[in-house]
Design goal:
Chains A, B: InterPro entries: DNA-bd_HTH_TetR-type_CS, Homeodomain-like_sf, HTH-type_TetR-like_transc_reg, HTH_TetR, KstR2_TetR_C, Tet_transcr_reg_TetR-rel_C_sf. The structure is a homodimer of 215-residue chains. Chain A is mainly alpha-helical. Chain A is built from ten helices and no strands. Chain A is 69% helix and 0% strand. The radius of gyration of chain A is 20 Å and the shape is globular. Chains A and B meet through helix 8, helix 9 and helix 10 of A and helix 8, helix 9 and helix 10 of B. Chain A binds a DNA duplex (18 and 18 nucleotides) through helix 3.
DNA sequence: GTCTATATTATGATAGAC
DNA sequence: GTCTATCATAATATAGAC
């Protein structure tokens, strides 16, 4: 054994990227306490470290928030884009997108809740010009994502599989209902992906189908 | 004119209760910046006053938050209770409650947004025992309110006017969609109550009716 | 009731050792 | 890369004048 690979301790298997760990810890804190309520010390403590580590990877607290936000948007985009691409009727695509969105809410809820609740909480008027620019870019990402849903509603109206008076309004109420999942959902011990898919399906069915009995 | 009523200046007509003014200013600030982001100086500035005034009426910042929260809940309760009381089918009551709820979201959105976004943002673990007690009482109020909706769903299932697989899930998705109104709605200049009622009706119709075309 | 200080604490951020 | 100070600032809350 003269030529040995660098030894790998058991504790080294988990740690993905160090930077990723910091990001995840921040998302966790932001979800639990909100952006402002979270101190850099809190994030460090969640890592079992001190601020030095956090500041080594992220310039500032807003920067940290921005990265969590961007990651949350990336996750949503990557979940929905395949569904959009695979085609089908408007209703079929909407169903798939809604389900993908809901699963993201459940499985990456630390990030998603930061995204969902944190947007407009962030002070607009008093931020620096650079921060304001980043914020507007992030808001732009959100609009692009919302447009995916809006356009799907329009497609569904066109092909006769969906019936809503106003696609924008429909998009907002749908995403409102689904985003709200981050508020009340928390994973049960022993929960599997199957369970989550089942719950997501039930949620989407309830929302898309409406609450009234068909006469 | 020897017997004169105490003179009333024009500026004295508006001011209701002084305490109410402080509360409303706080709700406005909480909505715009979030709880933590709002300083007591911010609230004072919104009043055109200094902290002294705020602290004269409210012991502390958490106290101020609690009162805003409680007020928001009272508004919702008082809006929905008459609808519950007036009877009708489950579907009819649900429609009325949802519309009343939505109008509250639009017309008292400073309070409602504080309620909606602020609950779990408030740190649970580190609050004092007394604060924790108050928080739990407030959460209790919320549960009572949610139960109004849950029970209406159950009633609607029983009388055949509503069809949902799970009343709790239906309540959550419905309130999610409606609460989300505080995120995107802002009053247009020149908007009247009529406009808001129309919009609320459209929102409720969209949500209750579902998004699919009936075959 | 409202104001003007002021005490106290918490937090974002940095510098420099290891 | 991470830690241990440390600085500077901002915000809660209070005391006491008016």
């Amino acid at each position: 054994m003269s030529v040995t690979a660098p030894e790998i301790a058991a504790s080294d298997i988990v740690p993905l990227d160090r930077r990723e760990e910091v990001l995840a810890a921040a998302a966790e804190c932001f979800m639990r306490r909100g952006y402002e309520q979270t101190s850099m010390d809190d994030v460090a403590e969640a890592l079992g470290a001190t601020k030095g580590r956090v500041y080594h990877h992220f310039r500032s607290k807003p920067e940290l928030f921005f990265q969590v936000y961007r990651r949350a948007m990336d996750i949503l985009m990557q979940a929905c884009e395949p569904v959009v691409a695979q085609g089908g009727s408007g209703e079929q695509r909407l169903h798939g997108m809604a389900k993908a969105h809901t699963l993201c809410m459940m499985e990456t809820r630390t990030f998603q809740r930061t995204l969902t609740m944190g947007v407009d909480l962030y002070r607009f008027g008093e931020t620096s010009p650079e921060h304001k620019a980043v914020l507007e870019e992030l808001m732009g990402l959100r609009f692009v994502y919302e447009d995916l849903f809006r356009h799907t509603f329009e497609a569904g109206i066109a092909d006769g599989t969906l019936a809503v008076p106003d696609p924008s309004l429909a998009m907002r109420t749908l995403l409102g209902a689904l985003n709200w999942v981050t508020v009340w959902y928390s994973p049960r011990p022993g929960e599997t992906r199957r369970h989550r898919e089942q719950l997501a399906e039930e949620i989407v069915e309830t929302v898309l189908g409406g609450y009234r009995a068909r006469r």
